[in-house]
Sequence to fold (959 residues):
Amino acid sequence: MIETLFSLSLIVLLIAATISLLGTKTSYSKIARRISLVLATTASIFMLAFAAEILLTDGNYSVLAYQITPTFQFSFMVDRLAAFFLSIISIVSVAVSIYSIPYVEHEEHEDRKNLIVGLMCFFILSMLLVIASFSMFSFLFFWEIMALSSFLLVMTDFEKKETQKAGIFYFVMTHLSTLFLFFAFLFIYLQTGTFDIAAIRADPLVTSIAFGFLFLGFGIKAGIIPFHKWLPYAHPASPSNISALMSGVMIKVAIYGLVRFLFLLPLQTWWGILILAMGTLSAVLGVIYAIKEHDIKRLLAYHSIENIGIILIGVGLYVIFTVEGFQSIGMLALLGGLFHTLNHAIFKSLLFMTSGSIVNATGTRNIEEMGGLIKRMPKTAMLFLIGAVSISALPPFNGFISELMIFQTFFQSSVLSNSFLELLLLLALAVFALTSALAAACFVKAFGVTFLALPRSHEAKAAKESPKLMIIGSAILAGLCVVLGIFSSQIFGLLGFSIAVPNMLFIGVILAGFYGLIFLAMREIANRNERVTETWGCGYPMQNSKMEYTASGFSEPIVTILKGIFRTQKTSERSFHDDKKSVFKEGKAEIHLLKFFEERLYLPVANAVKKIAEKVNSMQRGDVDLHVAYGFVMIVILLLIIWWFA
Amino acid sequence: MNIALLLAYGIINTLFVLLVSPLFISLIKKVKAYAQGRRGPSLLQTYRNLAKLLKKETVYSQNSSWIMRATPIINLAALLVASLFVPLIYLPEPTDLVGNIILFLYLLALAKFFMALAGLDAGSSFGGMGSSREMAISALIEPIIMLVFASLAFAYKTVSIPDMFRGALANNVFDPVAVLVAVSLFIVIVVESSRVPVDNPETHLELTMIHEAMILEQSGKNLAMMELSSAMKQLLLMGVLLNILVPWGLTTDFSPVSLAVALAVFLLKAVILAVVIGLFESCAAKSRFFRLPGLFAIALFLAVVTLIIEVFA
Fold:
């Protein structure tokens, strides 16, 4: 019974994709894409039911679907871990599919609307199948379909220069990721002689090499620093429903892969240290870059890097504590990391969806041109606020609980016998704390500048609330932010984990109770008179939006304090009329922000590749005789090699 | 676990924080006034201010939204919940309902988040400036707070504040680690309650103000709630420092006599700390905003030293 839900869900998704694609350029195109989105929602609900059943019963479901040869087979197995990630994908997919019904209508080109919907169904399908894959062959196969379908979705507005750059970046990076996974799987295959994920057992050096490749492959896809550059390009370029899926879900598939292999491989401490170090670096640099970003979607993309970092901190701590022999503390860290994976999927998709609504309403992604939207789009504002509070890890919302679990793991590091490891963990703790506080600062900026005070442009002034289904889609996720926060300890109990997290139901109830109490008390004891008037502007009349604090102004103190990290270079030249330098003539001032990773890492590598390519190019003159000669030389060399070894 | 006793603890502790916290605001002002050769306001002045603010009408900016209206209540509610986490006079039996140190910190962060949003809500440059500076400072102080709390968690092997106090109470001598922690916590109090050299609670001059700028648009009952919640926050942080460094006086016995004694002892301890804060403020000069990371570095250094001692001891 329960198994049929799995297959049914996949089949319905496939039908949904086909309907939408077949409907392109016909007179039924609109109805086709609507049907297919409704079908996608249904399929996701089926998948959610299936995953929930396995999560709750700790069941196991495996099926061999199709086999090319015994080595290359598509086989699927869903255990608790896979079911957890399947439920993440299906929850977000439900919300995104509902949201997309009105959202895709905003696309300028009529024929691309169905394409977006169809590819989106394929994208969701491929992510589900990656998670369910049991053999490395099918994992890699669907991983590649996932990469290609998302690449095509990023390229929706392919005419734009910005999109082309994003597309190339994403295409290259995602294939580097696949390449490293390919290396890892081939390596494991050569060692074990099978593509069966469960078969990996080998000596420390061999598993370490395999781990190295796997971490690189999954790390690039997850967007850890320094392999993060594709995220801030690809997310703003793609439609917001796709950004929600990519940032909320797709990068989590990489986390799944990492955790899955960590379960299979015999762990080593240095892996944990590496994961922790990269996680901490990604977390803090991600949020620091987000602070100075004023493109709302790029800001969110940098926060995805930050949150992937936080998840990896949890995973790294799990490895360290487990190897050192403290399984229960390690479990707390891992559950914290995994819970944060779920939470981030929910609030980040929520934030991308609501920011998509804002971008549609105002026609810009620059928050400096927004403002005052809380009055024009009150529901969207409320939903965005819930997302912002959750991502800032404030109680009683969901993001808080997962960060609390990771903090509590850190606080128990005194059990470790290795003092230097302990100090390393404390260093990571300090950086993690900084990350968390900077995230709150960043979202005060994002929410405050976007929604509060006066509108900063005519477009923002004329903004209208989004269609109902866009609100409903986002509201599902916002509701989950609250539910997963408030009922966190009950949920852990239901799943059979005894985790010492504070009972947020209690905290939530007394918080709300005090709120009500204060509200009533103030009505009784305080003066009830109210007056609405101008903001005090030091006596100047007619306050306008030019006098408001801007996003750049808001982040200025942090940017100045951390200028060493931003590598901001301020240069100024001045000339004067007289030689005493008292009468100013003219001047020029520049602020240059160094794109550190792009200028120092990506471009040098890209240029080196280009140079090699040019060398190779000079050998290929298109001359048939020459190419035949190459072929001949090659065969001779191969024969020589065979003769030598035989 | 005795529910009634726990409830009684909750009511007593919350009411105590709510009612006594404004006293220390005036006391610090008084100490500073004496240091400057003035007589200063009466100790009841903060209460009078609050009462007066409650009687005034509330003025809202036409630009502002419901954030402005909800923030004062959210602030006060978060601080009321937080005051359940720091036992000041009566130490209840161990419970996992309240006391988690991280939750305590993040309740304060919740209040601050909304306060900063309200600063931006009216569209005035003052509010924006205050919010921006406050968030920058709170981001920088956060690693220090976490390290200090981590060293407490290391020392007492718990993440619960009441259990830490219980551990401190079980030590009959001055814990050297507690002294080092106390110095870092002192700097945290100065920063978090917006005092010189970080901020100046006394002026409304845009060069110096941070916290005051952020709540500039608040008025009437809303301002009263904001003022009260910052007073409560100050008392709670003072309570953490005092009951770690000199926990003696905290009672575990729920009887009128021992409660009265504990109350008197806590007031004495808190008065001494408030005098120290006042004198510290009088000796320090307001620091330039971008010099503050230097002050934080001192606190960070102390926190790290504490931790190194704990790790290698």
Notes: The beta strands of chain A are 61-67, 73-78, 530-533, 568-576, 584-593.
